[in-house]
Amino acid sequence: MPDIDDAVIKKIMPHSTEAEESVIGGMLIDPASINVVSEIILDGSLFYNRSYGSLYDAMLALNKEGRAVDIVTLQDRLKEMNVPENVSSLDYIRDLVVSVPTAANVKHYANIVAEKATLRELIKVTEEISKDCYQGNEGITELLEETEKKVFKIVQRRNMGEITPINDVVMDSLMQIEKASKIDGEVTGLASGFIDLDRRTAGFQPGNLVLIAARPAMGKTSFVLSLAKNVVIRNQKPLVMFSLEMSKTELANRLLSMDSHVDSQKFKTGDLNEADWESLVESGGKLSESPLILDDTSTTIGEIRSKCRKLKLEKDIQLVIIDYLQLMNGNGKSDSRQQEISEISRALKLMAKELQIPVIALSQLSRQVESRPDHRPMLSDLRESGAIEQDA
């Protein structure tokens, strides 16, 4: 068999003419299948053959209007759309129907069409990235972030539609309300394990950025470690904690001390009795089997976002904890530290929304809180940025 020239291969984008024909023909044979197919193929732009794409869009429009979808109505709609005669002719449409023996496998063919469209989009993205790499107009960090963003967008698109009608949103809301009404208790989100807190918040809700702020040495890290322990051990929900201040070993020691009730000071001296060792071994077993992920290497919002996207796909993490906000670095393009913190805060909010999980970020308060007689904190005390209070 002769070798196929690489240049020819590059020009032939991934597609399946047979699958595209079978989708169009199957929908004409069984118009009821249009609703099934439309959940997989959003619109005609996913067809490699533009003529088939025009036919598909015309059928979707007829179905949406509640009109019958057959050869005659389809031809009329195609003429209204000013589609070329060679595509809108009865013979052309009839040949598509004849070429498909049954509509039974139309969902399978629709998946093939969607997969080929994804491959073409991926090729387009990689070509754009390759061009940017050759031009060298952007830094490596920006290129990597843009690459990941584009590829992740394609991954997400495989699982959901981009546009959601209000009726679907309302139905989803009603289903969530119904689900909440059936839950025994007041917690509808991710429970923290702190009864009073869960009663006030109904749990941490997907898509929310939650801020826990206090002055240094007030117990912020201890609180979120206790919260993390409750989530991963009691509820067995996977989460990732990014520590920009303490090492993973320090965090693990504090978790062991917290769960075993053994003074962490004894870890340094090694002055442990038999009861201490038994408690530590038991706690170590529980923590080792828990779905807790610790990270002490990431410092930029880009690194954290990249790892969270990966962990959401691979581990289905349900919570992200960051200790703490003011130690994070942005993209290096901000004019001031205040602007940089604002950009980081906004990026965390967008990440929570994108991944549909709660993100908890610890934050420092300014010294202003100490100048008040009652030391009562206010939102304006959030250090280095007023934008944090808007995003959280």
Describe what you observe in this structure:
- The radius of gyration is 28 Å and the shape is elongated.
- The chain has 392 residues and is α/β, with parallel strands linked by helices.
- Helix 17 links the parallel strand 4 and strand 5.
- Helix 2 packs across helix 7 and helix 12 crosses helix 13.
- The protein is built from 18 helices and five strands.
- It folds into two domains: 1-163, DNAb Helicase, Chain A (Orthogonal Bundle), CATH 1.10.860; 204-391, P-loop containing nucleotide triphosphate hydrolases (Rossmann fold, 3-Layer(aba) Sandwich).
- The mean pLDDT is 81.
- H/E order of the elements? HHHHHHHHHHHEHEHHHEHEHEH
Number of domains in the coordinates? 2
> Which CATH C-level class of the largest domain is it?
Alpha Beta
CATH homologous superfamily heading of the largest domain: P-loop containing nucleotide triphosphate hydrolases
Mean pLDDT: 81
Main features:
5 strands, 2 domains, single chain, Rossmann fold, alpha/beta
Summarize the structure.
With 392 residues, the chain is α/β, with parallel strands linked by helices.
List the helices and strands and how they pair.
Layout: H1 6-11, H2 17-29, H3 34-38, H4 50-64, H5 71-80, H6 85-88, H7 90-98, H8 106-135, H9 140-157, H10 166-182, H11 195-201, E1 209-214, H12 220-234, E2 239-243, H13 248-260, H14 265-269, H15 274-289, E3 292-295, H16 301-315, E4 319-323, H17 337-355, E5 359-364, H18 388-391
Parallel strand pairs: 1-5, 2-3, 2-4, 4-5
